[in-house]
Amino acid sequence: MEPTRSGKVRDVYDLGDRLLLVASDRISAFDWILEPAIPDKGRVLTQLSNFWFSRLSTANHLLETDIIKITLPAGLDRDLMAGRAVLVKKCDVVPFECVVRGYLVGSGWKDYRATGQVCGIDLPPGLPCAAKLERPLFTPATKAETGHDENVSFTTMVAALGADVAQELQRRSVEIYEQGRDYAATRGIIIADTKLEWGWHDGQLILIDEVLTPDSSRFWPADAYRVGSNPPSYDKQFVRDYLETTTWDKNSPPPRLPAEIVQHTRLKYIEAAERLMGQPFAWR
After folding, report:
1. Rounded CA separation 208/109 (Å)
2. Residue 137 to residues 68, 175, 178, 179, 182: CA-CA distances in angstroms?
3. CATH code of domain 92-224
4. CA distances for 170 relative to 60, 177, 221, angstroms
5. Which of 59, 75, 123, 197 is geometrically suited to a Cys-Cys bond with 206, CB 3.0 to 4.6 A?
6. Structural domain boundaries of the chain?
7. Whole-prediction pTM
């Protein structure tokens, strides 16, 4: 059975009133899917998301995480799916990424240097790179199947969804970021920012897709954090940094990742999961 839809990382199988989500080991950078894949990356994303879904005080899409209890479509290998497949509720997806920023970094830092704002939100002058913001910023973005998501104003979200829904998404997204940030701090990790996805199920907004993973968030080791510089991260920034050292023009097919880059990236993902979950990475 072919997936109903394949994204940059996840394959989605439509099972009628529910979906099977399978996190692959694919990794992308600069809007290209790279080769080779990162072994166990999909399992890290799935197991870490499951961990957070069980901790966060909000309704979510999970129905079953045990591969033994999931009836798989014909032709799917249960051993291959183990640790990376979950059965979830079928939802009407909210057409916005709900981005929450706790630190001034990445595209927010670039925006601030150019305009003094982050996605149209005024900030005090003179803030350095990686500064902790006085309060988290909610900066929605449109969802893109290919290419970059596009930052939009909160007013745009209100116009599309209505004030009540937009304000609920803002409030609940910031709450999730703060819950994750506060817990991660006890594990020696700073969550600088994150993006969340929501969907409608039986008239209720619930959290879907993945949550607080190295693919959807920027994780920093707390002991390496210094205001004024971008700390080393647990996400795929390591891969982006490597690609920046090559002659690749980002418009043609990318070079293959060297074995040492693949291995180092795998270990960074696993380290993040182990530190947050407080136990050795295991998916069986």
Report:
1. 28
2. 41, 11, 11, 15, 16
3. 3.30.470.20
4. 16, 11, 27
5. 59
6. 92-224
7. 0.94
